[in-house]
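Format notes (please read before filing issues)

Several people have asked whether sequences and structure tokens are stored in separate files. They are not. Every record keeps both together, in the order shown below: the sequence lines, then the token lines. Line labels are part of the format and must not be stripped during preprocessing.
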Amino acid sequence: MAGEKILRASLSAASSTAVLALAIVAMQAGSIASAEAAVVNRIDVRGNTRVEDNTIRSFSQVQTGTNLSEAGQDAVVQRLFSTGLFADVRVSQSGGTLIIEVDENAIVNQVLFQGNSKLKDEQLTQAVQTSPRGAYSKAQVDADVEAIREAYTGIGRSDALVSAQVQQVGPGRVNVIYNVQEGDRTKIAQISFVGNSFYGDSRLKQVIALRESGILSFIQRNDIYAEERLRMDEEALRKFYYNRGFADFRVISSNAQLDPNDNTYFITITVDEGERYTFGDVRIDSTVDGVDAEALYSELETRSGEVYSAEDVEETLVNLTDRLAGSGFAFAQVTPRGNRDFASRTIGVDYVIDQGPRAYVERLEIRGNDKTRDYVIRREFDVSEGDAFNQVLVQRAKQRLENLGYFESVKVSTAPGNEPDRVIVIVDVVEKPTGELSLGGGYTTGGDSEGPVAEIGVTERNFLGRGQFIKVSAGFGTESRNYNLSFTEPYFLGQRLAVGFDVYRSETTSGDYDTLRTGGDIRVAAPITENLTAQVAYNLKQEEFGDQIGIDLLNPVTGARFEDANNNPIRSTCGDPNPSAYSAAFGGPVLDQNGNAATAPRFTDSPIINEAICDSPYTTSSVSYALVYNTLDSATQPREGFLLQAGQEYAGLGGDAEFLKTTAKGSAFALINDEYDLIGSVSASGGHVTSIGGNELRVFDNFFKGKDLVRGFESKGFGPRQNGVSIGGTQFAGAQAEATFPLPVISRDLGFRGAVFADAGTLWGSEFEGQRNVVGTDATLRASVGVGLIWDSPFGPLRVNYAEPLAKEDFDETEEFSFGFSSRF
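Then the structure lines:
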């Protein structure tokens, strides 16, 4: 029995211990449970002076009556910190009360910049995020310091030093001061290539955008190194080689070494050119029912035997995709497959047409366009929401956006939509300035208006972000004035119709007679294909010729000026009585060129011109149309392609003039030698004007030609004349051939090119044949040869020509040396 009692006592003790242990565990569990999630009945906000209690409670996102764990308290701290309003946040819980204690950030009174001159305050203000009346944040100020450094790197001052200073100006208010030491401008001392043999360094330097620093770099700003620019130049090199047959081309490496002593970069680009290929067999294969592969061969831009070009393959893909989509095969997918033959160095291409996946565009998402409106970007896409997704058409839209000139870069990517067959097309753009202030100047030699000329203009190619073009300009010369306003809406009523107008006024007081023209036009251009455009315009102008108060009457025999009794010049004015009535003042009758008594006022030595002058002001109301075919690879310095234009102008819709004028011009450019960048071009032009409606053609409706047709002659240097005065011709024809090339020895970075040319042409025909002293109405050929110097200067293209006429008439007016200059920056 005793043993039994002992056993029971032990069990009892053990049970008590177990119960105690269980109680302790239960208490701990309850404590843990309480710590993990306690009910919040009240939120107490402390330490705030400017931010309202309810605002802080709202930022905390905690609702009374809900459980809040320690993890939930941490989340509250993070949410309040993310507002940028607080320097410190502490969250605790006492029973059912959640206590939020804050230290508020100071309010920024002013943001100041010191030590900056190369970047103005306005530019730096755009770079930083800290702003007046905002909350001060040290993290944001640190980020702003880095943003300012990047801004200086962007202008070639990568060694700029930037620091921030906080100045207390009152309770809870501070000034943030950014101190800048701009340093010297970082330059590019040398750009060199390794591994290139087919193309020399000088040629490849023209392909890339980065340039070695030179005497004009401070204007051109193309010697500013940035890693992203070097990456873009790598891509430019790839495109250059891929389009010239080097399908295996690789950029092995590219690096920039900074010499801290001279603050200059040395850039080395190592390449592997590989072999040069030509196109082998080119075929089209289709697995899609209903597609006639044979009928698609006309769309090919790649032909057997030609130098391989990735660009030609891309153009073929676009052509085939367009043709298939237009034939009802919206989901047909064209894939090029290359068949490389290393022995013959040829690449055959099979364009395989398969049925692609049925995917639709869910939406177009556009990002990065702060200025440009969304619809300006959307309208360049041939696909929109709900359309069949086509990668080729999307890539063509990307090319169109790049061609607009509104963006530094355009990136198009895709993301899955909300359904398996939906695709989101994402367009990321980086905008660039589209406005230009253009200043031009030069000196015109010879001709009717010798002397200095100047022009100033303001151009905006993306007006108000709407993609509209507007230009206002004014020109001034020794004896000329001109004013112009142009406006173009490239997508009228949402269609690819370029509608615009021009208004102008020009005054010329040089040559045989004064001219005042005031007019304008309304024009419409509609694309027929990617390269073919139709243009229609209505034109209205009023012309006045001769001095409004007449010109001095001269004795045609002696050349002396006629004066009245008070020694004032006697001037001719249309409507004067017979000049012989002034015989008393003149001391004798006024004589004409043949010594006979003059019967009409004389403004020039040409009675035909005099008659036209006395008919002014003269109004011309006309409609014109033209077809333009343009495949040039560049609008400023084409190397390949064609530009063909033909059109007519019909005058007779009211006004005084009635004529039909027909003109045509064609130019072709070809890269004769790629290594030496030798460019050849030929062009031909012609025109004919005839009177209609039984009326006589007015002299000023004729063509006036000279240096614009055959260099080496004045602006109205050849063609029909009367008494030495140009009266224009009814027909003209001409042809020019030219070759341009970089100048040897001189660095291509300076933008100099030489030119040799040969011109031939003629201006003939007149409705005034048979009148006294009219000559040059036959189609006698004029010709010249010459040389030129072209400078693609930072201010715009400048050109000097010397032309030697080889064929001319005795009465022609020549101008061997000519100089032209215009500028933009």
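For reference, the curators noted about this record: The chain has a mean pLDDT of 84. Residues 107-181 form a domain with the Ubiquitin-like (UB roll) fold (CATH 3.10.20.310).
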